[in-house]
């Protein structure tokens, strides 16, 4: 079934140059934009960076004071993603799953990837990031979860991951974000 689902999505690639570029964008370029968007959201949403930066009566910059109060949220979101990514790479070396282009001669990936496939490091990182954002900001979390799903599907279409790799990444990312949230609550009690 894993192979059937893979070939269903993979068959969308190599049909047109334009669509291959769209797949490449979602699989390889969108992740960088997503990290930047998360950073910008966390900085501007929490008013760390504001056009109204002034000095308060104590002589401190207001934006620095806000940053000091909100840094925990920023660190927690990105720590969830980074820890999930580390877990993914540990599992990759323990499990040794081939990538689709290594398993099937007829699969030509749209871009180069190396290493083992399970779980997908990209989807693990972005699902952990999205889940951590979801804990604090539900609506934005849904947007980032959608982006994580798009990245995962594009990586299947691009021929670098099987669906089980993506699903494993989603599960690991969600559990890692919950684990980080649990630790954060334990430490702050």
Tell me about this structure.
With 189 residues, this protein is mainly α. It has one domain. The chain is 72% helix and 0% strand. The protein is built from seven helices and no strands. It starts with a helix and ends with a helix. The mean pLDDT is 83.
Number of strands: 0
The first-to-last residue Cα distance is 46 Å
Order of helices and strands: HHHHHHH
Report on the biggest sheet.
none
Oligomerization:
single chain
- As a percent range, the share of strand residues is under 5%
Structural class: mainly alpha
Please indicate the count of domains. Answer: 1
> What average pLDDT do the residues reach?
83
Rg, nearest Å: 19 Å
Q: Which geometry do the CA atoms define? A: globular
Low-pLDDT parts are none
Number of helices: 7
Question: Which features would summarize this protein structure in a list?
Answer:
about 190 residues; mainly alpha; about 0% strand
Short summary:
With 189 residues, the protein is mainly α. The protein contains seven helices and no strands.
What layout of secondary structure does this protein have?
Elements: H1 2-10, H2 17-45, H3 62-95, H4 100-103, H5 121-136, H6 138-157, H7 163-187
């Amino acid at each position: 079934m894993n192979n059937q689902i893979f070939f269903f999505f993979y068959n969308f690639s190599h049909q047109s140059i334009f669509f291959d570029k769209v797949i490449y964008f979602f699989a390889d370029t969108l992740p960088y934009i997503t990290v930047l968007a998360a950073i910008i959201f966390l900085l501007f949403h929490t008013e760390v960076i504001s056009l109204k930066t002034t000095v308060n009566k104590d002589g401190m910059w207001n934006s620095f004071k806000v940053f000091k109060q909100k840094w925990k949220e920023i660190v927690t979101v990105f720590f969830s993603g980074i820890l999930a990514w580390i877990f993914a790479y540990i599992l990759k070396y323990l499990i040794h799953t081939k990538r689709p282009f290594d398993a099937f001669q007829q699969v030509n990936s749209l871009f180069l990837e190396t290493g083992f496939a399970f779980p997908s490091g990209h989807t693990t990182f972005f699902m952990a990031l999205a889940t951590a954002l979801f804990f604090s900001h539900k609506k934005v979390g849904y947007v980032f979860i959608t982006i994580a799903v798009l990245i995962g599907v594009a990586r299947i279409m691009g021929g670098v991951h099987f669906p089980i790799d993506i699903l494993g990444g989603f599960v690991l990312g969600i559990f890692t974000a919950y684990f980080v949230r649990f630790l954060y609550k334990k430490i702050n009690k």
